[in-house]
Design a protein that fits this description.
The chain is mainly beta. The chain contains three helices and 26 strands. The chain has helices at about 90-95, 100-105, 200-210; strands at about 1-5, 10, 40, 50, 155, 165, 245-250, 255-260, 265, 275, 285-290, 295-300, 305-310, 315, 320-325, 325-335, 355-365, 370-375, 380-385, 390, 400-405, 410-415, 425, 435, 440-445, 445-454. A hairpin with a 2-residue loop joins β25 and β26.
């Protein structure tokens, strides 16, 4: 007898493995090429075993025993039941299939009390149609004294008429889903009215109550709805008298612009009086407004501004702009001219003006500086020839066209000294309205307009 080194069981001397634990009884020589083997597959359970393992790690069969299959044998292995899996008895299978009371209640099944007889299976409805009847109720399987389970009122499938548990969502026989039950409509709330408060009381109170007035809108409220009465927009008042502008010179000579509003804008194409083709006119250059039976002109502060023809000598302030002929000039006011540097010999130069010195500057296109004239009292003359500032090439200038006259107090006046010439235009100071009269002439960009009243 040979004792198993693993479990101590006595085995015959010829035994290759223990008949209890199937452990190998003796060491066997590994077949040739075992060093290079990648492992072995058990011929019984087809489990993979790593190289060097002589007994299957799954079923315990010797991998190199005498009953091992030959290398070329293709006979399939016999069916094998692992030693760890023991066939269950019928009672154990039924016990595994049994459900708890909570599961039965959720599925809609009824559990009779102990000792009660099992309900008879319902009549086989689908027998006539050739379909198999539903399975009979099964006992709980918890021993001889455990209660049985009976099916409650079952529902039939509309497709195959097979009976199914009430909680089934689809037929267990054909798979047809059951329609969901519609939720019951909520019952209307019951309202109880005290008998002491009769309906006539409320009706009389409603009939006698005065109509509610519309609430006054608060600050920041949205506009009222369309059905509410909208406030009427007051119509614009007509100008107190008739006035129009007539264009002088240019291809549109003689065109008239009626002042139809209390405030009339002059500027680009979107203005009341628009000159969209003139690149020197701003979108809103000036405004003509009727104020207290008067018509006033206001410069809106654009780059080129608006100019008004001088009727009589007007006061000049430093940096005022005026137009004489085709020349744009700027009156800079009194300036200081530094004294010359003492040198040997002294530098040559024109005689220096005596007294206070003022400067008049020519403004070229693009806001650049042209000629500059430094003079002192009593005046500075501008014209084509024989003046302090001469522009012989300007055909719109007279020989003596304009003068800047200085008073004893240092004030300066701009005067038009040419008779019947093109005139002298002084820019209206921004945001300082000037009252207009009939016959006044305006210059906006390259446009010249004459005011007519009545």
């Amino acid at each position: 007898m040979v004792t198993c080194p693993a479990c101590g069981k006595e085995n015959s001397e010829s035994a290759l493995e223990c008949k209890r634990c199937r452990a190998p009884m003796r060491e066997q020589e590994a077949p040739a090429g075992d060093a290079d083997s990648l492992g072995d597959v058990c011929r019984r359970c087809e489990a993979y075993n790593e190289p060097g393992v002589r007994v299957c790690t799954n079923c315990g069969l010797s991998l190199f025993g005498e009953d091992a299959a030959a290398p070329g044998d293709k006979t399939p292995p016999e069916a094998f039941t692992p030693p760890t899996r023991v066939p269950e008895t019928l009672s154990e299978e039924l016990r595994a299939l049994a459900i708890s009371d909570e599961e039965a209640e959720e599925a809609g099944l009824t559990l009779p009390r102990k000792g009660a007889a099992l309900d008879k299976p319902p009549p086989a409805g689908p027998a006539a149609s050739g379909r198999r009847p539903p399975p009979a109720p099964v006992s709980a399987g918890k021993g001889a004294t455990s209660p049985g389970i009976t099916l409650a009122a079952q529902k039939a499938c509309v497709n195959c008429s097979a009976l199914n548990p009430p909680a089934a969502k689809f037929c267990f026989d054909c798979g047809t889903p059951f329609a969901k039950k519609a939720a019951p409509a909520p019952a209307p709330p019951s309202i109880q009215v005290d008998a002491a408060l009769g309906a006539e009381v409320y009706e009389d109170a409603t009939m006698e109550s005065p109509p509610l007035a519309a609430p006054e809108p608060l600050a920041g409220d949205l506009p009222v709805a369309a059905e509410s009465v909208a406030e009427e927009i007051p119509e614009e008042q007509a100008p107190p008298f008739v006035a129009r502008l007539v264009q002088e010179g240019g291809p549109a000579q003689g065109a008239e612009f009626t002042l139809a509003h209390l405030e009339n804008s002059i500027g680009g194409s979107a203005a009341h009086i628009g000159f969209g083709d003139d690149a020197f006119v701003a979108p809103h250059a000036a405004t003509l407004a009727f104020v207290d039976e008067r018509l006033v002109l206001r410069d809106e502060g654009s780059a080129n501004g608006v100019y008004l023809r001088v009727r009589e000598p007007v006061a000049l302030e430093p940096f005022d702009l005026f137009v004489a002929g085709e020349r744009l000039l700027r009156y800079d006011g009194p300036v200081e001219v530094p004294e010359g540097v003492d040198a040997d010999p002294p530098f040559l130069g024109a005689p220096r003006p005596e007294g206070a010195i003022v400067r008049v500057t020519e403004v070229l296109s693009g806001a650049r500086t042209g000629r500059t004239c430094y003079r002192s009292a009593p005046s500075i003359s501008i014209g084509r020839a024989g003046c302090d500032l001469n522009f012989p090439a300007d055909a719109l200038l007279a020989s003596r066209h304009a003068e800047i006259r200085f008073g004893e107090d240092g004030t300066a006046l701009l005067a038009d000294v040419a008779e019947g010439g093109s005139g002298v235009f002084l820019r209206v100071r921004p945001q300082q309205p000037v009252e207009l009269q009939a016959g006044d002439v305006l210059r906006v960009g390259q446009q010249q307009l004459r005011l007519e009243l009545g």
